[in-house]
Design brief:
This protein is of the alpha+beta class and 505 residues long. The protein has 15 helices and 20 strands.
Length: 505
Amino acid sequence: MLSRRSLLGGMAAGAVLTPADRLIGKPRSGGRIRVATIVASTADTLDPARAGNSSDFMRMFLLYSGLTQYDGALRAHPGLAESIETDDNIVWTIRLRRGVHFHNGRALSPDDVVYSLLRHRDPAVGSKVKAVAEQFAGARRTGPLEVELRLSGPNPDIPIMLAQPQFVIVENGRRDFSVANGTGPFAMKSFAPGIRTVVRRNPNYWKQARPYLDEIELIAIPDELSRVNALLSGDVQLALAITPGSVKRVRASSTSLVMETRSGIFTDLIMRQDNPVTRNPDFVLAMKHLMDRDLIKRALFRGYATIANDQPISPLDPYFNPEIPQRAFDPEKAKFLLKRAGLLGTRLPVYASPAANLSVDMGSILQEHAAQIGLKLAINRVPSDGYWSTHWMKHPLTFGNINQRPTADMMFSLFFKSKATENEAGWSNEKFDRMLIEARQSSDPVLRKAIYGDMQWMIHRSGGVGIPVFISLLDGYDRRIRGLQPIPLGGLMGYTFGEHVWLDA
């Protein structure tokens, strides 16, 4: 078991609106399913360090295993690690499970863990979690099934953070990721970047009797209507990211259902701080006041959302700060701020895509409100394919789509720390960076909550992102699918569905 300390930081579970009898029952082995994802490109990867979107995350959890795993409340449970213990939150002892083998038959060893953790620090690897892994001062083998991980400073969240898809364990020395060799529930059968991924059951998986399915195929269907049609026609059995407008149609069918999971995921307007227009504090504040949050929740998400307040920590998080006054939709104040900034009458392009959940519709609402006060926004709808590599963060105004992270530390470290590679707005605040370290080094939850609360204030006031709502996750599934439960990190059980689901007769 993980130590009591290592379980701190869990979050409240999301809610499932599907009848419970659709989710439980005696598991059956066998069968094949197809899963419709939303993203595919030639940049699709089998390298966990480079995993950056929902399709990548699914591949990681199908093919690899992590040291820890999440439950529905985002608490850490044993994975490849039977225990993770510490006395000071700096030096962590990781004891590995016996009898685990990679798909090529080689036994899991501490050297694999050491290599997997430390490779994220190498800039040449291009790890999406490099900002987090910079905490890893060192790791070494201390026994046949034991690893010592030493941090540069205290962090009580380490067991929770290690359950992220990028931190799954790869083979020692592995640099060629044209093929996958993991310890996960499925082994690679075929992989065509931008087209499909097919995996087959791993008969030597370290969890007895799992997985239940023989084969899973992932295909990308970026268009939501096409995903729904594929689900209702039986062409796919799971469909990621159903829009609220499709819920009634899916539930009215005789073949399919919808699962809702409350989450901290958000689609945000990114105002780059390296551009003289979008870094203007008056412009940033004006755009935040132009966000009609109630309309976005009601019209775009049909109520399947929670009003947000231009900072990334959701009410599901134990460190959420409820004391920050809710920012109001106020076009007149926005007009005043834009006039003061000398930007009324300015024409600005905004890049949106179906890849960023309902960002095109959000952009249209924003465009309409802006036009009424004299700001000309030109919404450029671009395809999902390649959006994240070609447009996201590449223009002064774009939309992002950020999955929930299991801890406030991870959210801040990955997206708001000054030098983080995915600091979307390029926002830089030295005081914020110092507070991040201060909170990480504290073992006092009251002090950490106070620090994280102040950091939320800072982003709310001056951060270069506008966050209107936290979005509930809606996934469509065939009525024969069993085993689905909510995990707020992402759709389809935080992308870990593969080892849990089975087909009922």
